[in-house]
## 1
Amino acid sequence: MTKNKWWQDAVVYQIYPRSFADSNGDGVGDLNGITAHLDYLKELGVDVLWLSPIYASPNDDNGYDISDYCAIQPEFGTMADFDRLLAEAHRRGMKLLMDLVVNHTSDEHAWFQQSRSSKENPYRDFYIWKDAKPDGSAPNNWGSVFSGPAWEWDEATGQYYLHLFSKKQPDLNWANPKVRAAIYRMMRWWCDKGIDGFRMDTASFYAKSNYNDGPVYPGGLYGDFSGSCLNQPMIHTYLREMNEQVFSHYDVMSVGETGGVDIPNALRYANLDGSELSMVFQFSHVDAGPRVIGKWTDQKLPMPALRKILNEWQLGLAGKAWNSLYLDNHDQPRCVSRFGNDAPMWRALSAKMLATCLHMMQGTPYVYQGEELGMTNAYFEHIEDYRDIESLNAWKECIESGAVTAEAMLRYLKEISRDNARTPIQWDETAHAGFTTGTPWIAVNKNYLSINAKAEEADPDSVLNYYRRLIALRKSYPILVSGTFVPLLEDDAAVYAWKRCYKEETLVVACNFTAETVPCALFAPAGGEELIGNYHEHVQGMLQPYEARAVLYRK
Ligand code: TEU
Ligand code: CA
């Protein structure tokens, strides 16, 4: 067996800098706030920190609209602050990933300013410009991810430009070799600074294969661009080129955020031959389930559906490519609210159960800030509390078009809005949960008095201390990284179970996704080593509400 790559042994922690820690009282988290909490992250045991974008940005999409890839957003600090954060992380043995957002730039990026200045400008082809249809309408029917059409008319030069996200996020033209060369140059600049890799935003969107109308779903206003813009054949050519020109010259990891990816494509993106990316974020488990309109819903995904998807990914990539494991990130509602049970009685137990479930699979686990505290959805009651461009635009479009009532839409936002994940980290029981001495840019979750890092540090049974134990296991039990995955009890309505096999060892994992005590005979053989579990006492032949157990058997 060949030696693992460092990123296969690692646990990654995602930081959303705006909401992590504010060091200067302006209500916005910043780089010095992160540096001040590095010891907390070290004690958690994570190996790699991924920073959501910290570059100069007009903040139309909280930094995912970048106006200068080599400058730091002033409200986050300075390049000197960044250099200190990188050095301090490295000094503690932690690595650092940058968020690479190169499907699009901000419309305030110098490239776009040039590009829109005239049709003859050398940067014109850095973006995707098309003539209007004869009737003056947009080149095709595509809708943007953030509502409205994906094309914006530019009066000055009399053409439309493409923006799959907001109109302040024009799509770069990856078919232009000059664009690709400029991006690789920028990536090498960061690698030369000593960063350890990239989380690649919308990496499955770079290549566009055609500009044909897409299907309009019943009740929808716009066409779907996926068939022309997601996971198109040329994407692999581009990523191989990027790999050759950037990754292969450094000891870096790369994780592609590949919306719409299927297993055959993931086998190419994340192949263990190292020709493209280290791993991908697939979306099947977070996109699945009943939806009412677009991505919006108030329905939960039943565990058997979640299990079917995750098992397929475990088996589908086994031995050939590498999975990343996540339930939470800055675009998703909080996992304990979505897949667990955030009622006070079950919150901590179900958060630990979900953590066990994720970290015992094969792949690189990701912890999103606050997940280790069992933070819950914010469930904001008023539209005025929301900040996210996607939520606000969808609110307007869905209600104005008459598709849903305001009351229903608020219900969907409470379950699904990205702002559920973006409320400030709950550090302690002081004002604004210790996140800021000023007024936070988005309200703190009301439950911070009972859910916060300080209280959890002091409680040996807290979600935080459970995550610490869970992450530490990975360092001493190679089976967690290298063991094969074998599904068990695939028809059980309540229990998600599997085993991992490695040399002479078998690790049996079972997670009860319900608030009932249910039968489970998997742990009948005596003599196993209890690696971790969220109950101190067991009931023979049963799993208690939200109980999770992982037991190691040696031959
Ligand atoms: O998200 C990309 C993406 O595919 C979106 O459709 C995502 O699923 C979205 O949040 C839909 O609800 C990335 C970033 O993670 C996100 O924060 C950015 O807003 C987006 O790209 C544009 O850069
Ligand atoms: Ca600040």
## 2
Amino acid sequence: MSKKIVVTGGNGLVGSQFEGNDYIKYSSKLFDLRNTNHVDSMFRKLQYEPFRLDGVIHTAAKVGGVGGNMKYKGEFFYDNIMMNTNVIESARKHNVKNLVCFLSTCVFPDDVEYPLTEKKIHLGPPHKSNDAYAYAKRMGDIQIRAYREQYGLNYKSVIPTNIYGPNDNFDVENGHVLPSLIHKCFIARESGNDFEVWGSGKPLREFIFNKDVAELSRWVLDNYNEDEPIILSTSEEISIKDLVGIVVDEMNYKGKVKWLSDKPDGQFRKPSDNSKIKNLLPKYKFTPIEDGIRETVKWFEDNYPNIRK
Ligand code: NAP
Ligand code: GFB
């Protein structure tokens, strides 16, 4: 009997990168993962398929950038805590032995000694801009540890930094910084208006390409079996100002960049320590940010206007 891995959120930025016969994916239109009955029917249905369910990569989440996180705190808390709770519990009930849960570097405390390591998740409150989402995600870590301890399951969590790539959500108000910048730069180039960027440009961020996240989290599913989450990061910081410079070059934008100082800067920085994944996979080559942005811009231009936005 062949083996399959369920990818929740299979249409998303990360989920879309799991390609081939190993994977089975369902849209939220078929199973709303906030609903316990839906999640149970998804796993029950899988038991009658002509393949064996070999693991779950749980990417589904309510996700957004600093704007979305500040505006929709209730939804970001409820949707994420319900999805994680349901998926992990139903996987257990249906005898799934291996599962990867997605956290995010925003789970870390705002005020903590840098760099961020896997041991520092619960040492203080997260940054105010995304506290609701961060607390919901932190509970994924607690649930995974509890299920490992009580049930002896090979469940574990990954902590990626800011992810970008083809198939992102290019929503200019609620999306993450890179897809928002690409979309806004495109609109400015086509309309002749200024390219409006939020904040001071001084904050620092770390970015990871969606294909790298998919490859690494599949590796984690197959090879990692620890209660401590694992950070997926290049550990290379870039300022928002320099990021804007790369987007402007790649989009061939010749107009004016206008900085909107009344828009949020968010957390100043969140530098992460990637030594754990580096020690386990010393030869892994992360996609350089310039190459990843070039591929994302090409994908955006090729697919516009049929993009998520
Ligand atoms: P995404 O592009 O927004 O995709 C999320 C997917 O979740 C969507 O395809 C959506 O499915 C699904 N989903 C949302 N609500 C659902 C519901 N109620 N029921 C079923 N499915 C639902 O997100 P992503 O950027 O790929 O994020 C993947 C994971 O990485 C998330 O857990 C996120 O927290 C984490 N993460 C993301 C970032 C980042 O910068 N993007 C950074 C760190 C961690 P449909 O399309 O079918 O509606
Ligand atoms: O990706 P982002 O929205 O989220 O990046 P975070 C925010 C940074 O980019 C801030 C600047 O410093 C903004 O001032 N920025 C500049 C912009 N222009 C724009 C723009 O047009 N749109 C956006 N969105 N930002 C998120 C968390 O934090 O990180 C999430 O809120 C998640 O929960 C994600 O964990 C990885 O990096 O601040």
